[in-house]
């Protein structure tokens, strides 16, 4: 579970670049949920050099399938039956559940997970059974496809598949949208209190973020190895998942020099600390940034010019699904912007559907945390899956920083 932790000063100047081995993939619960103990245990083992491929790598379990489950025939709208959904907390509000059940006659059962790795572990342990709809993030969609844990159903055969915005229609993790459909989009940037930090000094990139003078007060970072490492890599002129050993050393050096400027490393209470003024600058996910702005209008969300992570959570059908028609009916239902609007409003996110943003309340549409400008979108970089060997480097770098 994610916890708040202050940085403890120490001196770790050397970064040991790893060429091989298997690491623990990560993906944050972001705002709504906590990090699992399993993830933190994997970090500690990786740093100690004791990580086994079976324990944390996300490899296929004995119960995992070795061939795809295919259900890409003609669409048949279901009327009645049941559907079991496994999703992020906050992604299925009660009013949406009631509306869907009333309009389709399908009874929903909704459970939530804490991280993509928890989702993956659940599917691996059951061979994909137990749930019909699952909601993995971008890189995890790719990983679950490789593990044959998702049903191939083909979004183009759904009546509302045409509603997906062009920006989300050709994702690297599922280029033809045969296994997934986009559900929620968000961004990782940082927030600045413009009342405390003058515009002349306010950073616009990760490089400037890490270089900001400590006279303005201490900052906060997310307790997330991927987000922090990606930001540091971009700040030193590199990119996510790089294989350049020097880039990791440079990122490591940057983070070590930044330690004295950090007040909190946590993914909990991020919006509250910024809104209250406890911190005047900090790394934050866009939907948390929107919540912070509701309490403090002096806060400005920045899309770093050297790379703003864009993440997409998706709808998919688990390989062991027992209610395929109901699952397709749910996905098609959520690809109608009129049905999806309540989801986006609840999640504090912009729409992945054509015309969806126009249905949001005007206050949401006017916030760049929800609807980025064209210039801000130019900085967006879709988060991708690193190799297991590279994941080791992310883990070690982040642990060096926090120790």
TrEMBL record:
Its main location: periplasm. It comes from Bifidobacterium thermophilum RBL67. GO terms for biological process: polyamine transport. It is found in: Periplasm. Spermidine binds at residues 139, 224-227. One of its GO terms (cellular component) is periplasmic space. Keywords: Periplasm, Signal, Transport. InterPro entries: SBP (IPR006059), Sperm_putr-bd (IPR001188). The lineage of its organism: Bacteria, Bacillati, Actinomycetota, Actinomycetes, Bifidobacteriales. Residues 1-12 have a biased composition (Polar residues). This is Extracellular solute-binding protein. The keyword Signal applies. One of its GO terms (molecular function) is polyamine binding. Residues 1-29 are annotated as: Disordered.
């Amino acid at each position: 579970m994610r916890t708040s932790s202050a940085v403890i000063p120490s001196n770790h100047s050397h970064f040991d670049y790893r060429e091989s081995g298997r690491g623990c993939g990560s993906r944050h619960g972001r705002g709504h949920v906590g990090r699992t103990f399993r993830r933190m245990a994997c970090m500690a083992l990786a740093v100690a050099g004791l990580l086994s491929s079976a324990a944390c790598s996300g490899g296929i379990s004995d119960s995992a399938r070795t061939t795809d489950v295919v259900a890409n025939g003609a669409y048949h709208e279901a009327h009645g039956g049941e559907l079991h959904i496994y999703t992020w907390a906050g992604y299925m509000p009660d009013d949406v559940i009631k509306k869907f059940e009333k309009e389709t006659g399908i009874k929903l059962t909704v459970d939530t997970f804490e991280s993509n790795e928890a989702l993956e572990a659940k599917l691996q342990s059951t061979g994909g059974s137990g749930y019909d709809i699952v909601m993995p993030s971008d890189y995890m969609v790719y990983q679950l496809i490789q593990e044959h844990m998702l049903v191939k159903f083909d979004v183009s055969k759904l009546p509302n598949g045409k509603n997906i915005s062009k920006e989300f229609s050709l994702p690297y993790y599922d280029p033809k949208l045969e296994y997934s459909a986009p559900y929620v989009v968000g961004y990782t940037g940082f927030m600045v209190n413009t009342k405390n930090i003058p515009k002349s000094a306010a950073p616009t990139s990760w490089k400037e973020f890490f270089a900001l003078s400590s006279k303005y007060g201490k900052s906060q970072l997310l307790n997330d190895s991927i987000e922090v490492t990606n930001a540091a890599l971009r700040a030193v002129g590199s990119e996510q998942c790089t294989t350049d050993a020097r880039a990791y050393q440079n990122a490591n050096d940057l983070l070590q020099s930044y330690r004295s400027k950090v007040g909190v490393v946590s993914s909990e209470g991020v919006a509250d600390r910024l809104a209250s003024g406890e911190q005047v600058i900090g790394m934050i996910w866009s939907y948390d940034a929107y919540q912070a702005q509701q309490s403090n209008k002096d806060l400005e969300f920045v899309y770093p010019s050297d790379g703003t992570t864009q993440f997409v959570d998706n709808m998919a059908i688990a390989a062991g699904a027992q209610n395929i028609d109901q699952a397709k009916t749910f996905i098609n239902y959520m690809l109608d912007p009129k049905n999806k609007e309540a989801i986006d409003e609840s999640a504090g996110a912009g729409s992945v559907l054509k015309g969806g943003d126009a249905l949001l309340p005007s206050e949401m549409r006017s916030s760049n945390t929800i609807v980025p400008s064209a210039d801000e979108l130019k900085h967006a970089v879709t988060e991708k899956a690193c190799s297991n060997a590279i994941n080791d480097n992310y883990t070690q770098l982040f642990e060096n920083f926090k120790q």
